[in-house]
Amino acid sequence: VSDQKPLGCWSVKHGQIITCPVVCNFETREYIAVHDDKVLRIWKNEDINLDKVFKATLSADVYRVHSLPNGGPVVLFKGGGVRTLDVLLEAPQQEIENVISDEVIKWSEAFMEGQQPVLIFTTEKDGDFFIYVQKLKMNSLHKYKLEQQELSKPLSFTAYIKNQIITLLCLCSNDSLYKVLIPLQQNTEEEEQILSKSLLLNLSVSGSVLKGASFVVLDKDHIAVLGSLATSGVESKECLMIWNTKFQTLQTSKELPLGTSGQLWCYEEKFFFTHGKVLTVIMYKCETSSLAAAVGKLKNSQTPDVSSFVNWNTLGDEEPVLSLQSQQSTALKSESKMTLRSKRNTVAKVQPDTLSVGQLLLNLKDASTTVFEDELRQLMSKAQMPDFQATIGCVVTALINRCKTNPKYYPRNFLLQIVQTRDLSYSLCPDLMAVALEKKDVYLLQVCLQRFPDIPEEITYACLKVFLSISEAYLQRVDVNLESVICYIDIEFNNKEVKTEILENGFNAELEQDIWDTKITKETHVTTDGESCPVGPQKAALLNAVLHSPYSETFLLPHLKNLPAQQAVLFLRYLYYLYVKCSEKINTTLPGIRSPTINQIMDWMCLLLDAHFTVMVMLPEAKELLSNLHKFVRAQVRFYSELNKIEGSLRELQRLNHQKDSQTYSIEVLELI
């Protein structure tokens, strides 16, 4: 998700329904799904068709499959029965006991307590709620009844386990959060115990009530609640809030105007929830809670007592980062932002050490260009500050936002310096490449393609289209890194053929100077053996950067189909040239730094032909190219076929040579049949 790149897609047949969330088996790296309540499917990443993967029909309906990192998958049936996946696969049609009678499972979760898998689930019957705790290895099951209150009904649950105690948190319909403690060590044989609830948090904000839909535990002192904020006489607004349960304060909140599905997930200090029609990912950080941080009185942002840090930038807010640690209510939100805005005219007087990243960037919004860039450089120089990588992403976003508001402003050198020296990714500054495409800054695009691991296929295609459309004459006037091409492209200077080679004795100053001082006069670069490169070295280097960029074939192919036919033919000519060049080498490897590999060249050729095969066949200028490509591939297939025929004989010869005494001189004639 952090790379924003889909990796695979699988679908069941028409009429079949996936009835519980798909999970991953951490031990075998397999996916596990259940469709139509009883049909179990297991497959690996390389599998394409679900109809051909492992299938098992079970004897009872499945409620949920839970996957534990060190305990394997656990299957919970709607009747309350529990099996590990290994036991279940030994006999898929084994009878599953019915633990609950006329009860409906509402929620479940699995944990590892040491080496012991533990499953907890809640059920409902006639308004009463029950809690079941199952220890799989000990095969012990305990049932509890949840204390019920009038006018209060549990809406959602979450739980965590620590020191042999399960802490169950329950969000109820009276807009309050309750805590229930369940000890794992039970000495009593009592069949059913009643568990009391203790009030943990009241979800009311200055007269407004948060109607919680779902919530997650961030740490021992913080929770995040997704729901709608209802005020009498005012339309309710959906929002995400972070609360400090220790001091009963609201730490930060964010309205979600596009609406949500009500589902909230948390994994590795990131929130996941739907906002409108997209899945939104927001980074957060919770550290040691303190009263000063909870009430917004924390003065030094460098201390470890920062209660929460949330990067709201994913939601497209105008502020790059919003760290509203001083909020206790939504009423304070506007007041806090107004205070920050009033400080913008006094940037020079405020010490950055005392401000959060969000506050500093807000204050710099209207600063002069010199002050703006100097402050950002000073911010990046603080290598010890927390969330350093996220901060660099915010700095780039601040620069890009200024570019958007002021079209004449484009800090190319500053952006290049950041991208080349910092460990950035596309997801940290998604607008950077869009602006570079708009400015046709091919060098910055080249560096981004080489360094970013998570570029979406749409942007990769946009770069390819720009590189192919720009003239060679323009490219000769701009900076391009030629490391990937200078060692294998043969360039024609003033109608004189020059072969560029890697010199064994190091650097040749005269040749190097001559190469860079001579003007290239033709777009076609002829090699000594008659093969020609259809593009100049600058364009070749840019195309190589595209070849190196990671992609998913499924999601790149639709974009490639939109590539103009002439550009597609030119790109295929270049790929064919690289293919021939690779085949000249014994190890099929091109010399140079970041040169394309034979696999990358082949994959892109196949992609391009898949996207444009019909057009290529119809184009007269592509006919000879396709014919040459076909002949070359056919010749290579025959060559490797002949090698395969003598592979056994060569191995036998190698074995015989090892057996003989190397000191003995002999001449032997071996006939290969």
Descriptive keywords:
17 helices; 673 residues; activator; five-stranded antiparallel β-sheet; globular; alpha+beta; 32% helix; five-stranded mixed β-sheet; NOL11; 29 strands; NOL11_N; RNA binding; nucleus
Q: How would you characterize the overall build of this protein?
A:
By secondary structure, the chain is α+β, with helices and mostly antiparallel strands. 32% of the residues lie in helices and 27% in strands. The chain has 17 helices and 29 strands. A hairpin with a 4-residue loop joins strand 6 and strand 7. It starts with 17 loop residues before the first strand and ends in a 14-residue tail after the last helix. Residues 297-309, 316-354 and 491-530 have low confidence and may be disordered.
The general outline is globular
Task: Give start-end ranges of low-pLDDT stretches.
Answer: 297-309, 316-354, 491-530
What is the helix content? 25-40%
The average pLDDT is 77
The Cα radius of gyration reads 32 Å
The count of strands amounts to 29
What is the structural class? alpha+beta
In this structure, how is the largest beta sheet organized? 5 strands, mixed
Q: Please, how many helices?
A: 17
Strand residue content: 25-35%
Task: Report how far apart the termini are.
Answer: 55 Å
Strand order of the biggest β-sheet: 8-9-10-11-15
